[in-house]
Specification:
Shape: globular
Structural class: alpha+beta
Distance between the termini: 41 Å
Number of helices: 7
Number of strands: 8
C-alpha cells in the first residue's frame, strides 16, 4: 500500500456554509419552510383533498417535508435559488427524497423534519453515510483516501405545529452534533438591505397551485 497523508478539511465549516449558501439564499430557504407548512396545512384542509381519502393527518409530517421541498423547487424554477435537484431513494428504497446540489457539486442538501434545531436529524442510513464528507478520510474498503465527496448539509424544520417553530441549515458531524449550523429563521431580521424584494417574492410564491403540488407528490412517490 502506498504512503497516505491524512488531510483534514482546510476550510472552516462556518465559512464554507455561509459562502456556499449566501444570506439571500438562506432567506429563500427559510421562506420555503414557512410557505411549505402553509401549503401542507391548506392541502389537508380542503375537504375534497385526495390526501384525506388516504390517511389524512397521519401523513401530515411527511407532507410538510414534501411541501418544503416543493417550495424550494419553485424558487429554483423562478431563478431565485441556484441549486439543482433530483429524486433519490432512501437506503432501503422504501421512500424517496429530494437531493439538492449547488452548481459546483460541492454539497448535498437534504430537507428533514426534526425535533430540535440544537442537533441534526435522527439517525437514518441514507443520511449517516454522508456525515464524514466534510473531512478527508480513509476508506478501508477501497484502500484509498476520499477527498472530493460533496459536503452533506441539512435544512431541518419542525415540528408538530401548523407553522414552523424553527428552520436551521447546518453541516452535521453525526446525528448529535453539528460542525456548524445557522438558524435561518432568524436571517430575515438580520438583513440590512431592502427587505421589500423578499416580502414581494414571498407574496408571489404564496399563490399556491395545490393541484401542481399533488402532482409533485405523486411523481416523487412513483420513483
Amino acid at each position: 500500500m502506498g504512503e497516505y497523508k491524512y488531510i483534514f478539511q482546510e476550510e472552516d465549516p462556518e465559512e464554507f456554509l455561509t459562502k456556499t449558501f449566501d444570506k439571500e439564499m438562506r432567506v429563500y430557504l427559510n421562506s420555503s419552510v414557512k410557505l411549505g407548512y402553509q401549503l401542507a396545512i391548506d392541502t389537508l384542509r380542503k375537504d375534497e383533498s385526495w390526501l384525506n381519502q388516504l390517511r389524512g393527518k397521519e401523513i401530515l409530517p411527511r407532507l410538510k417535508t414534501y411541501a418544503v421541498e416543493y417550495m424550494i423547487v419553485q424558487y429554483i424554477k423562478n431563478g431565485l435559488i441556484d441549486l439543482n435537484y433530483s429524486i433519490e431513494y432512501t437506503s432501503r428504497r422504501n421512500n424517496t427524497f429530494l437531493l439538492f446540489n449547488d452548481q459546483e457539486m460541492k454539497t448535498n442538501l437534504i430537507v428533514n423534519q426534526a425535533t430540535s434545531p440544537i442537533k441534526p436529524s435522527r439517525y437514518a442510513k441514507y443520511r449517516a453515510y454522508r456525515y464524514n464528507n466534510f473531512e478527508t478520510y480513509f476508506d478501508f474498503a477501497t484502500n484509498s483516501y476520499i477527498e472530493e465527496k460533496p459536503v452533506y448539509v441539512e435544512l431541518n424544520h419542525g415540528y408538530q405545529t401548523d407553522i414552523p417553530i424553527f428552520s436551521v441549515l447546518g453541516i452535521p458531524k453525526n446525528n448529535q452534533l453539528w460542525y456548524t449550523s445557522i438558524p435561518v429563521d432568524k436571517e430575515f431580521e438580520l438583513l440590512t438591505e431592502d427587505k421589500s424584494k423578499f416580502i414581494t417574492t414571498e407574496n408571489e410564491m404564496s399563490d399556491f397551485n395545490i393541484d401542481d403540488f399533488q402532482k409533485h407528490i405523486k411523481e416523487s412517490d412513483a420513483q
